[in-house]
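Appendix C reproduces, verbatim, an entry submitted by the partner laboratory led by Prof. M.T., so that reviewers can inspect both the input and the predicted structure.
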Amino acid sequence: MTTFNQGDARGEPGRGFWIGLALGAPVMAYGVAELLRQAGWSRAVAAGRWLAVGLLLHDLVLVPVVLLVVWLIGRTTPRWLRTPLQAAVLGSGLVLAVGWPALRGYGDRVDNATVHPLHYGSAVLTVLASVWAATAAWAALRCASRARWRRARGPSAAAPGSLRTSRTPDPG
């Protein structure tokens, strides 16, 4: 039995692909037609170039950097801290990526104060502080549950530094 988005064993696309294509292709065609109608060929080509460069930067720069950072975190941090730290770093990157245009003031207009009416620097810092506070709470819970689990388990007979292992006979 296959699920909604899986293809068959031969690698052919499943129903989800065809539904997405049937819904997405007309929307994309409408967007391209409106871009051409309202902006003309030269601006449409510039928009296509911008999109292509963005996709290449994403695939050739951003994704490898993110994978390297997450891999380094996974190799250098203790197991109980790994997942919260990776989630916080990825969440922080997402917050900065979404907030970047507003932080840089892209689209600001002197004659229209409603374009960017808020102080986006403090807003982004607030969200980042929330992400890291949640991460600290998550890591503290994992550390506490790990310590509680170790206390409940008791000292192991084969713990490092133990005089008795499973191979030594009981002296008494």
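The chain has three helices and no strands. Additional entries are available on request from the coordinating office.
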